[in-house]
Structures are given as structure tokens and as C-alpha cells.
Design a protein that fits this description.
alpha/beta, 14% strand, two-stranded antiparallel ribbon, binds zinc ion, five-stranded parallel sheet
Amino acid sequence: MDFELPSCVPACAICDDTTWKTVDVDGAPRVTRCDCWHQRLYDSLLKGARIPRRYTHCELTNFETHTDSQRTAHRKAVRLVEQFPVVDRGLLLYGEAGVGKTHLAVALLKEVIRRKGARAVFYETRELLKLVRDTYSGTGEATELEVLKPVLEAELLVLDDLGAEKKSEWVEETLGLVVNTRYSERRATVFTTNLVDTDNTEPSSFAFHLGLRTRSRLLEMCEWIRMDGVDTREVGPQPTHEDIARWQERSPASPKNRAKSGLPTRTSGQARAQIKPRDGKADLKWPGGRAGS
Ligand SMILES: [Zn+2]
């Protein structure tokens, strides 16, 4: 039988829905915000954070560490949460796929919302660029600035999978604008990327893909952490020591076998163009026309 609570029963038994509660501080009563108020704020900020459903389970407490670099990255993530919003530099987590970069970035973003009530937002780089590009078609309501505003102004931004987008002058300028604005406003940003930090003839390098100027901004505004680990997409979640040893031995993707093959961790493709450092003023006057690809 369905049973409906009468509407006069408060949803919160602690505060009778006043959102205030009395606590004891050194023997004296003090009024403070009720837990339900914090929960509602957290729920609403979390909803605004745009975390894709496949990452909603990601927490700092369920991040798996199998290597020293994963432990280091986890420690730095915890420290960023503790220090927020007084954070000198964000984090740039780079390394192969499957080592937990996005998990860690999402987890720290949620924790900053939960513990600090921060306005924090997650964008997958390709998705962000698509949203900006869609504003040029005239079909959407939003302007490019309306799309970019929350990205530029969030107290914490996670920009996921930097470098997965196809390189173009427009992409370089748009990402340069995001990086530069957040840099000059001293807002904390966490990047994840598969890009490698080799010279600018390597297409998967920061210098080639983003330009030297943006690379140097990233060096200034973020602590770079190279992450390696077992690829949990290959080994499966919660691998045993035996699983990891077997993977190390057999998988062509394991660090050991990659080193043996003598190949770079990413194939270099055929492009060999040189990047010229740009004087690049990052404003909204896109150089390659508005229909950038
Ligand atoms: Zn309450």
C-alpha cells in the first residue's frame, strides 16, 4: 500500500527544514548551517559540474595505485583539495591511456566541490571545442563567449584529454585563449592528456600540438605529473600482483615490452612541420576565420 508523508513533516529531522542547526562549540551553543543545506549545495554544484556518467563513480578513495607515479599523482591531488582555493599551480596529468588520469581529475573535482563548495566544471576538450564551433552555425542560442564563460571563470576547471582533438590553427588559438585567461586570472586548472613532452617535430608533443607559447604557460601554471601504470582496461579492475606480472610480461603495451621494441610510446606519424612560436594575442578575433576545423 502506498503511503504518503503528510506535507507538514519536515524533510530534515535535524533542522525542521530551517537549514540551520545548533552545535556546541567549547560548551557554548552556536548556530551553523545544517547538513541538509551542505548536501543540497553539493548536489547542485555537482550537477553543474558536467561530469560524464561513466566517471561518476570516481573518487579519491577508490583510485587504484600500482606504481610510484600513480601514488605521487594521488598525493598531489589530495594536497590540491586540501589547499584549495589557495593553490599556486594546478596539475597536468600526462601519460598513456588507462593509467587513471581522468579518474583522478574527476575525483579531485568532486572533492573540491564537496569539501570547499567550489564552482568546478569538467570539460572533455573535444566536446568543448565542438560546443564553441556549434555556435558559429547560427543554429544554437549561445554565443561563443557564453559557451566559454563558465570554462574561463570556473574556480576549478578540469580539461580532459587535451590533444585528442584534431590540430588546427583555430584549435590552437581557442585552447590558447582558455589557458591564457585562466593563467592570468590565476584560476586552478587540471589537465589530462596523452601528449608527450618531446620536441616540436613530434605531432603528439605539447609543442607541436598546442604551440610553444601554450606549452610554456602550462609549465608555469601546472605541476606536471607523468603517470604510468598498468592499463586497467587491459588487466581488468583490481588486478592481483600475478595479473600485473603477467601483463608486464605479455602485453605489447606494458612499459617493459614497449622499451624493448625501441619505439617511442606513440608513433610519430608523417608530419614534420616546424612550429613557429606565436606572438598570439588570445582574444576572440579568431585568425583562421570563424569556421575553424
Ligand atoms: Zn537540515
